[in-house]
């Protein structure tokens, strides 16, 4: 990633985003945290070297532990101090598989790949969320109801900044993805993309990316961002 894009990432994507309805954002020193969703979320500036990092970590563990909630600390590879991941593990956090931040200029992202034959891609609302949860649960062989809770809450909190798309075949949801529009009008983030096994390898994921890129472009956004990994299972975090 170029230094310019890395700087843009640090400027625009270090926040928490819009919390779901009923959740809220708190600040604890240099950190921001979301409270009240299915699990907590903590993020901070690139450089925490001037702070008592261990005390900050302990405070988050105590806070969310007192609420009986799991918590994710969003750590990036270029964060400082460099031993932040080691400090988090020492406090009981478990690292997810490494993800790569992928940023693409929307102008450079194809927005026209058609859906495969027999597949319909459409924007959906709250009524489709149970079917999305059922598909996600089948893909990951676990209860993914928390995804539905997040989508319902996010639609209620900021319906103009979240667009959900499904890929359907014979009346069944076979894949789904959503795009969250950042408050600053610069970055749009892609989420989801799970696809039933028998429907993989047919271009459905590519079509879902294209329709979401087109949606973001129509709303004036410059960049698409996704946290990409070979294994993008719903993660287990401290307390999960």
From TrEMBL:
> What Gene Ontology molecular function terms does this protein carry?
acyltransferase activity, transferring groups other than amino-acyl groups
Q: Which UniProt keywords apply?
A: Transferase
- InterPro entries in UniProt: Acyl_CoA_acyltransferase, BioF2-like_GNAT_dom, GNAT_dom
PROSITE patterns in UniProt: GNAT
The record places domain N-acetyltransferase at: 119-240
Show the Pfam families listed in the entry.
Acetyltransf_6 (PF13480)
Name this protein carries in UniProt: N-acetyltransferase
Give the source species.
Answer: Actinomadura logoneensis
